[in-house]
Sequence to fold (219 residues):
Amino acid sequence: GQSLEQPSEVTAVEGAIVQINCTYQTSGFYGLSWYQQHDGGAPTFLSYNALDGLEETGRFSSFLSRSDSYGYLLLQELQMKDSASYFCAVRDDKIIFGKGTRLHILP
Amino acid sequence: NAGVTQTPKFQVLKTGQSMTLQCAQDMNHEYMSWYRQDPGMGLRLIHYSVGAGITDQGEVPNGYNVSRSTTEDFPLRLLSAAPSQTSVYFCASSFDSLGKLFFGSGTQLSVL
Fold:
């Protein structure tokens, strides 16, 4: 089976940096993805890591360590609009999501 | 391109009724899937398809049927609705195995 663990909530200050961790267990593995979901909206794709290391896309970066079955999403220069839920997801023959991390940003 | 189109956006059913949630994509994606989202439970996979004529069960398939007769369409059928199926349903598709899913706007379903 597959399982993913991520914190249920994280709080950070506007302008700061926050890291959201994700650990996974899966029988097969093609890669780790991250999605953002604002209240009332649909999830939107942020990033994908198939190989170990850091991927950077603007203010967002994502890291993967396949040997540790671990990844994280790093958000820099936090803005109020980043307040949302963030989901990690793993792909083998299907895509399974974690339960999500609610990010609260304080002014 | 419209992307992934889900209908209806809202639906209220009585226990025991059946209905079909429609999902269509115009991106020629091979992979399509249905998720339900409940508070605190994240997105749970109901059924998925890796191509026309091929479907498989996800994490929570009971009470739901799917078919994939064309690349574009992937309807989800509730055979006999139960209050436990009250949820927000998302259809999603992907071109390849890179895990970039495109989501529809969702269907809010209430079963009374």
User: Anything to note?
Assistant: Residues 64 and 80 of chain A are 26 Å apart (CA to CA). Chain A touches chain B at residues 8, 30-33, 35, 42-45, 48, 50, 87, 89-91, 93-100 (CB under 8 Å). The radius of gyration of chain A is 13 Å. The first strand of chain A starts at residue 3 and ends at 5.
